[in-house]
Structures are given as C-alpha cells and as structure tokens.
DNA sequence: CTGAAAGCGCTTACAG
DNA sequence: CTGAAAGCGCTTACAG
C-alpha cells in the first residue's frame, strides 16, 4: 500500500498516547523533563502510527533546521562532481542536504533563478546555502557560499584559480610552437570566464604574441554556443593551429566540428579545454584540459558553509583553489607546414 | 551585503503596500479579483523589498506545491546519471525538484533512511517522490516511484531488466570459452541483486555448467565489499578464469585486486560488470559491462511520477527497461592452458 | 474587490 | 513533569 491516507501528524500521536502535542514534541526532539513512562507511551504511539515529524512544519517554527541547501540551475557533469564533494564534506556532520533545481530552463524566470530559489529556501528551510555558478549577484538572510561567483563579488566564495589555469594552458600550446591560437570565451559576466580570457591574453602577451581579436569567439559556456564559433574560426584562410576553449563542454564541440570539417586533431589542430569533466577523458582523442577539481570546489564550499552557519569560520571568506594542466591526446606540436 | 537581516515576509509587503496579506497572497499567486491599481501597488512593494514567498510556509498551507522530491542515500556516479534523466524529464513541466540526501552515512539511522526522509517530505513539501534504491519497502501519503525496489514490491517502480542483462553477460563469457565463472553478488534484499544472480545461474544452467557455490562471493554493492571476495576467489588453486560482478563499482575493485596479484586482465582473467558507470569506460583495461541506462531509469521514473501526481497515468505501474551488453577490453577468450 | 480570521503541523516560552 | 496558548509565514473560505 504505497499511497496511504492523510499523513500521520503529531496530534494523532498525542491523541493515541493521551498526552499533549507539546509533550510529543519534547519526546521527538529528545528534550529533558519528560518522565520515563510518558516517553515510553509516546514512543510506542509513534511506532504504532509510523510517525515522522514534518520537515516543513518544524523548520517553519524553528530557527535552526540542520539542513543546508544547494541551489543549482541545470544538472550536468559539472554539478555532479561538485555534489560528490559537498556530500563528502557533510558526512556525519549532522547537517542534511537539500538540493533545489529548477526545471524552468528556458522559461521567463531564467534570469535571477538563483536569487529566487535562494530566498524561498533560506528564510525558512535551510540554515545556509551553496549557490553553484549564479548568473548574477546573490544575497540571503542566512549564510551562503558561492561556487564561481560573478566578477567583483564580495560574497563568501570558492573558485578555481582560473587565471593561472588558463595561462598554463596557453603556455602549453605556445610551448608546442603554436602562435595562431584561437579562444572560445564563456559567459562574460562570470568571473571564471573573465579570468580564463585574461589568462589567454596574459600568456600570449608574455610570449610576445599579439592578440588577434578575429581569433576570439564569444561563447557562453553552453556547449552548443561553441559550434558556430569553432566553424567560423576553422573556415578562415588563416585558421588557428590551436584552439583553447573556456570549458570542456565547448572544447568537445570544437573536436566535433573539426572532425566534421575533416581536420585531424591533434595533427591539424590542437584543442585544450577547461574543467576536466569526465567526458573529456572519453573523447577521441582524449582532451587536454585544465583540471579545476570540481569535487574539491564542492568540498571546500560545504566545509566553509558549515562553519559559517555554526559561527566557527576563521579562514578567509574567498578561497582560490589551484588548477592543474592535464596533457592528453588533443594537443601536439604545430606542424612545420602550417607554421606561419 | 550577503547576509542581510531577517527575511522579508508577506506582512512587510502588505504594510508597505497598505493592504492585507490576503491581498498580497492573491497578487503573488496571480488569483483573479484584485484591482489593477492594487496589483500595481503590491508589485511595486514586492520589488522594493525584494520579496519572495517562503516555500516552506506556502507548502504547509497548500495541498499542491508543484515540487517533486527525490530521496537518495549516497551521492555517486550512479545517482548523478539518474538525476540527469530526472531533470530532463522535468524540464518545462512546471514542477521543480528537491533532492534530499542524508549525510548520516554510517549513523544509527542508516536503516530505514528512505522511509524517514520520504515521510518528512511527502506530507507537506512535495507532491510526490522518487526513491532511489531503497533498502526496504517504502510508503507515503503522496505518489511515489521507486527506482530499483526491493523484491516483490508492489509500489510503482522503474527497474532495469536485470535478469536478461546478467544472463547476456554470462552468456558472453561462456561464448568466450569460460567455464569456471565467479560471481560477486550484491545486497541480496534488493531485487536488482537477486535478478542478477538469477541471470548468472540461468545462463550457466542453460549451458549445462553446474553452479559451484565456492565461486559465489556475497558482496553488498559497496565497492569495498568486493575486495576480500575477489582475493579469496583468485587465491584458490582452481581459480575462476572469469568473474562477473553485480555492479561496476565492485567489478572495478576486482580489476584492482587482479592487478595487485599480478594477474593480467583479460589474459589471465576476464571481468564483467553491471551498470555502465562513467568510470568503467576509463578503467585499464576498459570494463566490459551491462549498460542499464541510469539516465533512462531517472527519466522514466520522473515521467511516471509527474503523471501519477496529476492523475493522468495510464500505463503499467511497474516498468522494466532493457539492458545492453557493452563488450570492451576486460574480457577475452579463455586461454587454452587454463581451460579445465 | 478586499480584509479578518482560521488553520496548515509543528515548537517554545509561560504557567502550573 | 505537563499542558494551553501563541505564533512561524503563508492560503483560503467566509463576510462584506
């Protein structure tokens, strides 16, 4: 019988045990000052009815709920890795996790979804929230930690060192002899996108290679956005010998476009991504990328949030995590023939 | 300013707009019967204060919340794939998703966690829930769909055709000439584990190969549980030439143990898993496995739940999804030398 | 068209 | 040690 009647409430328990709901509440929450015999009666009533207190009702009344929230937009490989880190950090912590995902992907409310969901949860349900890659600034009445905040945000946050990571990626290409290096950028309002572009510019500048604006495509981190951009870059007579994409999702699309156009990777074109999502290791060839340890992003964010909620946080409120270049099969020395 | 004071409530809006909370509620929920000028006033107050209604308070009062729940224990690759399917099924559906994960992995309450969380959510917060791989029977006062139910459960559910999948896997090994085929079982209370073992027995029986109880190890789907079992099997003088593990997580551990013991896979030992988690394609050698399309499990479960909630479900309440054998690098013909 | 009042299921001072 | 009552932030008949 999966669908019973109405749920069992605290009043049902109180009635059966012959006590008030106040007393039931005390027993359920293990408060002192209830006689052993009353406890036994209430426990037996709870058992007989299969009662569980309503999370909603309890959190409406209480100040602390011992539930932490995580607000995310879409659910992608990126998010999955982050969640593993968050869960591991919360193991045995006494906090449960509620993840709120909105299904309204392309609906009217897409802008500002994070703020809306955050507010709806944080007033009551949760003691604090992690917000994953919001599109704008966010605020709440309880502590929050943002993974990948927007530029110049003062909110507590955890971010990968995107500048260093991108610099290393482009230096790797320069080291292979590439000089015409295309770049596919991410959503420019995000700090991550901005820093990755900065890294690209910085590495080129330090190598004395002028930035050619024609070699920069404006994507938005959505993999599909990279398709026309990659095509445009690769159809140029002076096409780049390498492309650095600001995310693996977009880099994988560059791989597809190159294949479509009959270009060999890494023979005719080197490709570097950013993120190290699981799919990048499965690509053919395997994608050279910058690992930003999304697991650790999630782990650190949860760790900080926990301490922020309990008022024990001592460390800096903005954490920068190191990245690591993973050289795999999609990059190779530039061919002598195509060298300018 | 990330941490403001107390959250903005409906009373704050009502006060500023000079109306009652009843009226604010009507505007927020788009109910008919409010004058245009009042709507404008309320809207402007909402905007000025940055008000969002509390999910908790609203769902406590309402019957429908337009939020679906998903209850899961740990957060693993398995879960991530399921979630992608769930989210895709819910896109533009008008339902949001709340995922509840408990952090109390090895705590006192581990048994029955699904039922407890389910009850706490389903009375009030959600219109219905998906429960992923519960360890026992579950029930709720609102519709539920179980992914991977326990044996003989009558609850609406979505399951992979574990029997057929396991049969095919073992037939594949038999076809390669293997006769001594070890099996590492999963948590026996789960229908999935039971069916996979049945498939193992069935394939052997049909090939006229007697089942050797000494070749069956009793794991519990936890990858670690496979380590001593694999070791015991492989240390036998008459060790099996192939091992079929009831999950990829366990199969990957078999790979590790074999490597430790200096056995070559697939030269000395063939290994087959079940699930097709992303990691299995990254293993060395890549793992031959049975794909149970966890994405589709999630997709179908969400699809059914949605229709169950709105009362529109017409199909069967127990869905069996096909599986597919993926032959990769971890299986090979049995060596002449080791053939009995 | 609008408001006062009751109530969703709990928890928490306050009395006793 | 226990209960009556208020109240968390909303929504919904019910009046007017």
UniProtKB/TrEMBL annotation, chains A, B:
UniProt xrefs under InterPro entries: Cro/C1-type_HTH, HTH_LacI, LacI/GalR-like_sensor, Lambda_DNA-bd_dom_sf, Peripla_BP_I
HTH lacI-type domain mapped to chain residues: 8-62
HTH cro/C1-type domain ranges (all copies): 9-42
PANTHER family registered for this protein in UniProt: LACI-RELATED TRANSCRIPTIONAL REPRESSOR, LACTOSE OPERON REPRESSOR
Keyword annotations from UniProtKB, A to Z: DNA-binding, Transcription, Transcription regulation
Annotated CDD domains: HTH_LacI, PBP1_LacI_sugar_binding-like
The UniProt record lists the keyword Magnesium: no
Protein name per its UniProtKB record: LacI family transcriptional regulator
Keyword Transmembrane helix: no
